[in-house]
Amino acid sequence: MFHTRKTPFFAAFTLAAILAPGGAHADEVAVAVAANFTAPMQKIAQLFEQDTGHKAQLSFGATGKFYAQIANGAPFGILLAADDRTPEKIGREGLGDPATRFTYAIGRLVLWSKQPGYVDAEGRVLQQGDWRHIAIANPKLAPYGQAAMETLAQLNLTDKVQGRVVQGENIGQTYQFAASGNAALGFVALSQVTEDGRLREGSAWVVPASLHAPIRQDAIVLKPGQGNAAAAALMQYLRGDKARAVIQSYGYAF
């Protein structure tokens, strides 16, 4: 189930008015999307436009960088963050409406290699492999990078890995380092390497959730999105069956 912290701001809208195609004036909303959520959000945005007539203009990147842009007046209407702390901070600072905040997905971290058979199912390759470089997102900007560092600390591997890290600005760049072969291994989002529950290529170890803090990903309507019909509709749509099916197909929980 989705975890709702506050009464959603779109309660004033009826579901029919929000979701009926052509039933209301079509609008657009600019959405800042955490890089790990790129593939599912692209699909959701297409379905959203088909079903409602509204459009979501998507930008992808690191949550930390999006916060800086939002604080400096970037005209995003919604933030789909890679964590829950940033939306909470945004609401506390008056940059968004805290009543709209909810958890749209809980992410999973995975150790991945483009090479089939290279990563074993228990992640022993971290200790036993002959790899030279590992890609990790900047833990100061990317929650998946922070989760990766927490995992290494839990496994007492922080010292072993130091000096071998290829750091990505966000989880999208981190995946590219591993996919290009610049790093033999990469800590990436499960959503980047799977679809419909299947690994698309390479080999992977899904990191046990007990090894790091939950990657709870929250959405919030930002000040420029308040009163925007498309923003209201999209926040509602993310809770619906179609969006949830897409989100689950990429390995996220709720």
TrEMBL record:
Binding site for molybdate: 63, 171
Pfam families, alphabetized: SBP_bac_11
Keywords linked to the UniProt accession: Metal-binding, Molybdenum, Signal
Coiled-coil residue spans: none
Top-rank taxon: Bacteria
BP terms from Gene Ontology: molybdate ion transport
A GO MF label: molybdate ion binding
InterPro entries, per database record: AvModA-like_subst-bd, ModA, ModA/WtpA
Residues annotated as signal peptide: 1-26
PANTHER family for the chain: MOLYBDATE-BINDING PERIPLASMIC PROTEIN (PTHR30632), TUNGSTATE_MOLYBDATE_CHROMATE-BINDING PROTEIN MODA (PTHR30632:SF14)
Stated family: Belongs to the bacterial solute-binding protein ModA family.
Complex formation: The complex is composed of two ATP-binding proteins (ModC), two transmembrane proteins (ModB) and a solute-binding protein (ModA).
This protein's name: Molybdate ABC transporter substrate-binding protein
Organism of origin: Pulveribacter suum
Gene (UniProt): modA
